[in-house]
Amino acid sequence: MVKLNSLFWGPFFFICFIEFVSLRADAAVKKYQFDIQVKNVSRLCHAKPIVTVNGMFPGPTIYVREGDRVLVNVTNYAQYNMSIHWHGLKQFRNGWADGPAYITQCPIKTGHSYTYDFNVTGQRGTLWWHAHVFWLRATVYGAIVIMPKQGTPYPFPRPNSEFNLLFGEWWNTDVEEVVKQGNKLGLPPKMSDAHTINGKPGPLFPCSEKHTFAIQVEQGKTYLLRIINAALNDELFFAIAGHNMTVVEIDAVYTKPFTTQAILIAPGQTTNVLIQANQVPGRYFMASRPFMDAPLSIDNKTATAILQYKGIPSSVVPTLPHLPAANDTAFALSYNSKLRSLNSPKFPANVPLKVDRHLFYTIGLGINPCPTCQNGTQLTASLNNISFVMPQTGLLQAHYFKLKGVFRTDFPDRPPTPFNYTGAPLTANLKTSLGTRLSKIAFNSTVELVLQDTNLLTVESHPFHLHGYNFFVVGTGIGNFDPKKDPAKYNLVDPPERNTVGVPTGGWTAIRFRADNPGVWFMHCHLELHTSWGLKTAFVVENGQGSDQSILPPPKDLPPC
Ligand SMILES: *[C@@H]1O[C@H](CO)[C@@H](O)[C@H](O)[C@H]1NC(C)=O
Ligand SMILES: *[C@@H]1O[C@H](CO)[C@@H](O)[C@H](O)[C@H]1NC(C)=O
Ligand SMILES: *[C@@H]1O[C@H](CO)[C@@H](O)[C@H](O)[C@H]1NC(C)=O
Ligand SMILES: *[C@@H]1O[C@H](CO)[C@@H](O)[C@H](O)[C@H]1NC(C)=O
Ligand SMILES: *[C@@H]1O[C@H](CO)[C@@H](O)[C@H](O)[C@H]1NC(C)=O
Ligand SMILES: *[C@@H]1O[C@H](CO)[C@@H](O)[C@H](O)[C@H]1NC(C)=O
Ligand SMILES: *[C@@H]1O[C@H](CO)[C@@H](O)[C@H](O)[C@H]1NC(C)=O
Ligand SMILES: *[C@@H]1O[C@H](CO)[C@@H](O)[C@H](O)[C@H]1NC(C)=O
Ligand SMILES: *[C@@H]1O[C@H](CO)[C@@H](O)[C@H](O)[C@H]1NC(C)=O
Ligand SMILES: *[C@@H]1O[C@H](CO)[C@@H](O)[C@H](O)[C@H]1NC(C)=O
Ligand SMILES: *[C@@H]1O[C@H](CO)[C@@H](O)[C@H](O)[C@H]1NC(C)=O
């Protein structure tokens, strides 16, 4: 059993969550109330109203145990449409609770409520939740901590205590306005003004004396850090001065432990590390900073928090850790290559060995005409040259109720015109085609998807997230994927299993999964900038024959459009 950290969300934990009499042996029903409220919050000498859950920034942590049923009643008191995604939860047959607006539900309108009702089955570890409509996740996010079943220990030494670290981004002005401004120009919106750790930027930013997050540790003890990258647009390095970290879990899947001086974490990903408070008692900075190895303007802002040994006065000046350089591709590739599934008898890696369906999707940036934009053009992004157009109604409803004309199922398995994907930059004819096109997948078939970055406009690293599933990252490489040579180098034994993976700059990543969860499942780049530019699509996974192999009926309170 792990002690829940009471330093943090303790008071909230006791007020807002009620454990009900269990239905199954050790499972319980956990109920939460999420009030979407606007609250005036101050950072970097600026105060502004932001959208929050229950007035908290970041929002409350959801604590559950594997096997629990969770009911979250989301009531929207803000002026924006809202929907919440439970990032990484598989939502078996239950896309109704997945959350992305206009994909699995219509948004919860101002003054309305919707109860997300889901079971946490076959997963344990750290995940997170966030708004999944426009850019509202900038301030609407929080952690999900799934404890293992009662009596089931971690497959690593039991920590004495644990802390959640959520990385985010902060804008001094209204994020929705910043985005509108960018769209008007057809260009990226203004970069964030700060990076944050648990909503606080730390002392390297102005006016941050009161806005530094700190944890207190005791000499000789071991701590579990549950690290979540909730930033909108940046992959991040993270390190702690004087202390190494042992990675034990990613995206709520146990890994073979390895020790490192820094981690790399993409937006959407989670990483659990163990740290030992075994250094000279003092104050040490924990720091995060973007990783960016594409020829684009670099955001070099460093967010800091403090690791403080018990008994050390706050007047002691902390030291900064060594972080890899922003363009340290070698570190990024080496770090990712160390990630391996635990693949123990209890936690096997069931990698599909035979592939029923081979998919090859190119990732491209582009420029499309835009009569309403200042410049007459707008930057865009595409998969297989298709920039996804958001529908007006939920795709899952359209699929379930067989509504015609909402989407097509002719998303191509391969790019329409093959080219030298990662050769010299291509800057002529950057137009993309537009459409709400999905790919239909047979129930329980095995899928291999190769995501190939391209030189259209510029190469860049893209963290891809698939809803409704975990997948195995069986291979990755720089340059063009070679279907003759590269599969021979796949790891089909203990590849990392996760829900979000970074496709390297000018490279490719191959993932495999078994399509055993019927529904409509969103897949997108988790850089919010690229999601909004159309770097997204969805899979329509058909129902199976069995009685427990079809989409559940929609809940009665599902928001209408
Ligand atoms: C937010 O706080 C600032 C500083 O305290 C104040 O000037 C501003 O009027 C407040 N805004 C709202 C909407 O309450
Ligand atoms: C959700 O919360 C709202 C606001 O408190 C309440 O009116 C509604 O009845 C709740 N829904 C459920 C299912 O409890
Ligand atoms: C959750 O589990 C309970 C108990 O097994 C079951 O009755 C319920 O239908 C499940 N809900 C969903 C959304 O799968
Ligand atoms: C951290 O790991 C590095 C490389 O393995 C090693 O040189 C260093 O001594 C370790 N530091 C601590 C504090 O354990
Ligand atoms: C970060 O970037 C800014 C602007 O490009 C530059 O002025 C500054 O020196 C950089 N800081 C560091 C620590 O590299
Ligand atoms: C990384 O950036 C540094 C400083 O901007 C530069 O000196 C170095 O050449 C770059 N390294 C690579 C591999 O691009
Ligand atoms: C206008 O668009 C062109 C490409 O179509 C680009 O080169 C240029 O930088 C843009 N200018 C502005 C001000 O957006
Ligand atoms: C693709 O472009 C690269 C870089 O320009 C070049 O080295 C390579 O030979 C090209 N590949 C093919 C198949 O043309
Ligand atoms: C993408 O589609 C547009 C519009 O049909 C076309 O002009 C362009 O050549 C295509 N680009 C690629 C790389 O296939
Ligand atoms: C899916 O296919 C695998 C391999 O054929 C089989 O073992 C498994 O029982 C199937 N699962 C379902 C839910 O049909
Ligand atoms: C909120 O969602 C509804 C339903 O999809 C839509 O009609 C309305 O325009 C949306 N409002 C805003 C402000 O986006």
Characterise the protein shown here.
With about 550 residues, the protein is mostly beta strands. It has 3 domains: about 5-145, Sandwich (Immunoglobulin-like); about 160-335, Cupredoxins -  blue copper proteins (Immunoglobulin-like, Sandwich); about 355-540, Immunoglobulin-like, CATH 2.60.40. About 5% of the residues lie in helices and about 40% in strands. It contains 5 helices and 33 strands. The chain has helices spanning about 10-15, 175-185, 330-335, 395-400, 530, and strands spanning about 20, 30-45, 45-55, 60-65, 70-75, 85, 115-120, 125-130, 140-145, 160-170, 195, 215, 220-230, 235-240, 245-250, 255-260, 260-265, 270-275, 285-290, 305-310, 355-370, 375-385, 385-390, 435, 440, 445-455, 460-465, 470-480, 495-500, 500-505, 505-515, 520-525, 535-540. The protein has a 6-stranded mixed sheet with strand order 11-10-13-18-15-16, with no helix packed on it. A 6-stranded mixed sheet has the order 22-21-26-31-28-29, with no helix packed on it. Strand 15 and strand 16 form a beta hairpin. The radius of gyration is 22 Å and the shape is globular. The model is unreliable at about 1-25 (pLDDT under 50). Bound molecules: 2-acetamido-2-deoxy-beta-D-glucopyranose (11 copies).
